[in-house]
Design a protein that fits this description.
Elements (H helix, E strand, L loop, with lengths): L3 H6 L21 E2 L5 E2 L6 E4 L5 E6 L4 E5 L7 E4 L6 E10 L10 E2 L6 E9 L6 H4 L6 E10 L4 H9 L9 E3 L16 E6 L10 E6 L3 E3 L1 H7 L31 E2 L3
Parallel strand pairs: 1-8, 2-15, 10-13, 10-14
Antiparallel strand pairs: 3-6, 4-5, 4-11, 5-7, 6-7, 7-9, 9-10, 12-13, 12-15
Bound molecules: 3,5-difluorobenzenesulfonamide and zinc ion (ZN).
Amino acid sequence: ACSSRFVLSQMHPMWQEPLEVPGGDRQSPIDISIRKSVFDPNLKPLVTRYDPRTCQQIWNNGYSFLVEYDDRTDKSTLHGGPLEDQFRLCQFHFHWGENNNWGSEHTVDRHLYPAELHLVHWNSDKYSLFEEAVMEDNGLAVIGVFMKVGRRHEGLQKLVDALPAVRHKDSVVEFTKFDPSCLLPQNTNEYWTYAGSLTTPPLTEAVTWIIMKQPIEVSHDQLAVFRSLLFTSAEEEVQKSMVNNFRVQQSLKDRTIRSSFN
Ligand SMILES: NS(=O)(=O)c1cc(F)cc(F)c1
Ligand SMILES: [Zn+2]
């Protein structure tokens, strides 16, 4: 399974913001101001090649739930878009709110979505492990997909059905043959991209963010199952609902957001 465990295991208690990051001039998440973004005609289409056979398990790490992939070979990859190199999928996870009015980490012209999907990839042309790549400027590429309430998402339902098995922090359940491309919007040619960071500690500034313009639709009931997860482990007396696991927005500072569309 991908070793983003070590990154998440350095977790600080939830949201002891503001966590000052030394020289933090490219922190995430941010608001994507449409009028401030610059169309870049050289941005290429995104190319994702995901092999469902590399899907391994779901893990509740006490912050979100991760669907982890076997990233020991180049079987599930991302390239194109703003990327010079090939990146390997290691996990995907989500951020959501306690209700449908907020939950996403990024916003578009301050518009909040109820949830946001992050597909995490590391640069396998330059590094040999996730934990190496996570310390480097060009080490990671994360695809962000906004989620809005609407029709039930049939592809997501297989994942939703498995969540009760990972209700508590540190629980893991086998989860196989899941193709995460079913969670991408039909139009992946329209995205924003900018240089940013992990949105949870250690907040390293290693991420090329690729945020899809088109949200996916999920049902109210599917999001309600996300909210049935717990931050706390089975042993803890007081159980805390896993909700509002998003970071406060960060300053754009001296960065440009590029768009692949006009
Ligand atoms: N939320 S995020 O996508 O920036 C992220 C990805 C990751 F692999 C580890 C993290 F701690 C956080
Ligand atoms: Zn995330």
